[in-house]
Amino acid sequence: MRAAVLHEIGQDKLEVLDDVEAVGFGPGKVKLRVRATGLCHSDVSAMSGVLPQPAPLIPGHEGAGEVIDIGDGVTGLSAGDRVLVCWLPACGACPACRRGQTQLCLAGFMNAGTPNFKRPGGDVFGFAGTGTFTEEVVVDAGCAVPIPDDVPFEIAALIGCGVTTGLGAAINTAQVEAGSSVAVIGCGGVGISTIQGARVQGAAQIVAVDPVESRREAALRFGATEAVAPDGLADAKQRITAGEGFDYVFEVVGKSVTARTAYENTRRGGTLCIVGAGAMDDNFQVNMFELFFDEKRILPSMYGGGDVLRSYERAIALWRAGRIDLESMITHRVQLAEINDALDQMRTGEALRTCIEL
Fold first, then answer.
1. Which among 181, 222, 142, 187 is positioned nearest to 41, based on CA atoms?
2. CA distance 311 to 23
3. H/E segment holding residue 302
4. pLDDT tens across 19-75, in order?
5. Coil, strand or helix: which one is 313?
């Protein structure tokens, strides 16, 4: 079957090959036919080494498709079912799951170290234990979440990561209050979803911050009340908050420098929400006096900061009701053979979200 393979961490191009096989099928597993997958910035971060991942690897974790086969012991799924890929399934038994913090379950991360593909030259790993830049993939049954018939595969794929992450940051983690002021730094797919989440919550002012003009223009269409380049944030802070700072600031880039900017633009007693996934050696610093004196809440948000199955259902409900726009988030559609063009479009900021159709 065909798949897009990264041979070594640090390479910036993928090679589309037709000699890849999905392996590992057995008890507790399902085999999926991938129909659509989104290109998420986390895939690029895995390719560059910012996010740790063994190689050679097949990127992709934001996917949807159909069940081909189920292994022994799998219940609630049948061949032909339409599903989205959950790259972080909850085991239901660990301390995090028992506390109701299923987004912190580590069971899914364990899958990242087990190859679920092979080629004539050896094993190949799927990013985050999945790897959706391929025609077929074998995953744990918990990774295959049934979707209603009225949800297109490309919409389900977005809900599988970016939409859930961004909406959840605003709704679950920060719990944005109606009438509040919000700034979102970084307006790719996750940032746009964060803006939509803040709008759903009733924020009065939502300032989108991004260096790419097309993304700023898109942010206005998705609910931002204004959009500025990074050098315009100080002026927006002064005009909107009289210099005090925003009630909520979301960092959706994954870098310490933008996290520091986010902190400085959060009002005293306000909330800084870290959504972007960054590198282990990129340290965010605050001094002990400001940490005490400013009483700003610093809240990291992992995969939307809540139960992902409930978050999927909520995203579908909001989409059906017209409260969030998911179709317009897909600005580019490509075939698997064009994956490197899609990567370039993401790196330059030209694409908001690219759907790879298989």
1. 187
2. 30
3. none
4. 999 999 999 999 999 999 999 989 999 999 999 999 999 999 999 999 999 999 999
5. helix
